[in-house]
Amino acid sequence: QWQLVESGGGSVQAGGSLRLSCVASGVADTDRSMGWFRQASGKEREWIATIDSRGATSYRDSVEGRFTISLDNAKDTLYLQMDSLTPEDTGAYFCVADHRFDKVASTPLYWGRGTQVTVSS
After folding, report:
1. How many helices (DSSP H) and strands (DSSP E) are in the chain?
2. φ and ψ at 37, to 5 degrees?
3. Through-space distance between the first and last CA atoms of the chain, rounded to whole angstroms
4. What is the pLDDT of residues 14-69, one digit of tens each?
């Protein structure tokens, strides 16, 4: 049972960078996996990236090589470093968590409320 709070969203010009963070509070779980989803206006939420407690990562093809997900277990904080941003990256970004690595990228149990990212041309 976790509470997830995102921060770091904002407005940036195309080609710029932004770093999102997510602080998780609740009962510690060594098998925890975490990740990021995003939702553009008028579109469904889509999976962006996932990391497990051992550091194994996975990325959506459209952000591979541009985004980097990381997790500071001591701080219970998840990060998403976003580089070479494009207008197509605009949307609300959500932090997610699950006990199961094979589920966090599809139907994660826990969601934050989101932080807005806007990329202008």
Report:
1. 1, 11
2. -115, 165
3. 40
4. 999 999 999 988 756 567 899 999 999 999 999 999 998 888 999 999 999 999 99
Please tell me the predicted confidence (pLDDT) of residue 28: 61
β pairing state of 46-52 and 57-59:
antiparallel
Q: Give the CA distances from residue 80 to residues 19, 33, 63, in Å, rounded to whole numbers and listed in that order.
A: 6, 14, 11
Contacts with 102 (C-beta within 8 Å, 6 or more apart), sequence order: none
Helix, strand or coil for residue 103? helix
The token pair that represents 103 in the structure block: 């589920």
Helix, strand, or coil (residue 88): helix
- Distances, alpha carbon 75 to alpha carbons 18, 60, 111, in Å: 20, 25, 18
The residue type found at 121 is S
Exposure b/e, 53-68, CB count within 10 A at least 16 = b: eeeeebbbeebeeebb
117 burial via Cβ count (<10 Å: 0-12, 13-18, 19+): buried
